Amino acid sequence: MSLALPAKAGEAVRRGPSPRTMIAALVLALIVALALAAPLVAPFDPLDQDLRALNQPPGPEHWLGTDHMGRDVFSRLVMGARTTLMVGFGGALVAFILGAGFGLVALSLGRVAETVMFALIDLVRAMPDVLLALLLIVALGAGAQPVVIALGVAFAPFFAYVARATFHREAVKDYVTAARLFGGGKLHVLRLHLAPNLVGGLVTQAAILLPRCVVTESVLSFLGLGSSPDEPTWGRMVADASRYIETSPHVILAPVIAIILLTLSLSILGEAVRRNLDPLRAAGEAKL
Amino acid sequence: MTNLLHRLAPLAFTLARMLVQAAGIVVIVFLLARLVPGDAVDVKGLEGDLTAAQQVELRHQLGLDRPVVEQLAGWSWRLLNGDFGASIRFGRPVSAMLATALPTTLLFTALSFTFALLLALGVAVSAVTTGHRGLRGLVDVLNVWSIALPTFCVGVVGILVFSIWLGWLPVLGSMVLPVIIIGIDSAGLIVKPLHEELREAATSAHVRTARAKGLAPSRIALRHLLPTAVPVMLALSGLVLTSLVAGTLTMEVLFGLPGVGSLLLNAIHGRDYPVIQAAILVIAIALVIINAATDLLHRLIDPRMTS
What we know:
The structure holds two protein chains of two kinds.
Chain A: H1 11-14, H2 19-36, H3 38-41, H4 73-108, H5 111-125, H6 129-140, H7 144-171, H8 174-181, H9 186-222, H10 234-241, H11 249-277, H12 279-287
Helix pairs in contact in A: 2-4, 2-11, 4-5, 4-7, 4-9, 5-7, 6-7, 7-9, 8-9, 9-10, 9-11, 10-11, 11-12
Chain B: H1 2-35, H2 40-46, H3 52-62, H4 68-80, H5 94-130, H6 133-148, H7 151-165, H8 176-202, H9 205-212, H10 217-255, H11 260-269, H12 273-301
Helix pairs in contact in B: 1-12, 5-6, 5-8, 5-10, 5-11, 5-12, 6-8, 7-8, 7-10, 8-10, 9-10, 10-11, 10-12, 11-12
């Protein structure tokens, strides 16, 4: 029974981005560029139906073929990239602001408030995030905005937890004690000395949660709960095409491959960010 | 006496937390369902079945004109008695609809859960005992797989490959593919922490002693490493169950399994609020109970937890 020898400390730290990270960054950049330039790139209106050309295979006119309503798959894919990215990233952003904000307010109000407010978060966390998102969408109605809010609320607790963990780790350090001894008030120390040190952990958490947000968005729109039918999203495209999977698999494969490329590159990049930035893991990582 | 109290206090805490969480979920589900613009009577009214006077009458009958707190209390009381109300669309009691759907979901989650734990344990234990590069690579592959590949996308590819191109499985109604997909997904979620824990255990004194005694690697793996994995598995099983919720929803819809997930989704599309509330409640509260049970079990077998 042999065990892996630990690599020399610091060996992995100095290296530049790995080829894997570079490829992931390129793929993500390409998807974002396509989404931004969607109206210019898309050869057709994503909602235009050509009823004489249903479920066409890929060809010179329709690069990725057409779906069951004769809509151009490539155009729907690049326009769908906009909604998919906007809702996924928007959800992560709302979660960041909501979670970090709530956490910081709880922390600055003192012990009792912290305990009570985090007990409240624990209570919400008892519910799986997908169920909570579902319930919020039922309450708020379908559409892009409710999905962003639902994702934000469902993922906010992670940011609050990270804010609390880094806060307590930093709060006992000498520089904080020094700042307090020099007469710095609690809020002053939090804003000027602690907050900058919380950023690393929070950004890392955002990088880890981003692919999960995008995945949850695509799951919700696959289930028919995402944006409205006139806004193509990748998840909805998969759901629409699933009935024609036998006769025209290319229509379903296009959004499936797009989703996988997006989430895969996001999680590889998230992992790279975590390895380089995360103050919580930095100590442990150096040992491996 | 104090010793007993010392041991019982955390158990009581776990149970109390379970009750508070369950109550919290009931309140959250109730309040969010109240946010919905329009109540059950409005839905019926829109369908044109009721006059305005009949609507007022029905609302009074259903207690929808009473204060919110009173409604919440009444609703919770009926829930405790197993009364989930009746479906707006079908008029059937919701409890009967749940009873029809539950066996499918229970079987599916039990199979996926077991497969996930066995797969994660098998990969982690063999990676630690053999130290094989490929097996350690498999730990990472599984981990990235579960983070980056949405289960419904894997499901679509699986249907294409195994049902349509190879013709091995029926497209709808078969549980084989969904169980494998969800199993791999959930295994990837826990295999990394499990592997790390086992690797640490492999360097501990009792395993070194066992090796020094000349015990066979397989015996060390089974008798000395595996037991250390049990508490970790219990701690991680909550994570698996939570991820199973999303997985069950998508797999039931994609593969046409008539479980609670399909019931919930159909209810959401049909705005059948009593069914939506009941299905979400049942799933969420089942999770709270199972998590409390694993927590208790964890405390029982791992004395470090009580200190």
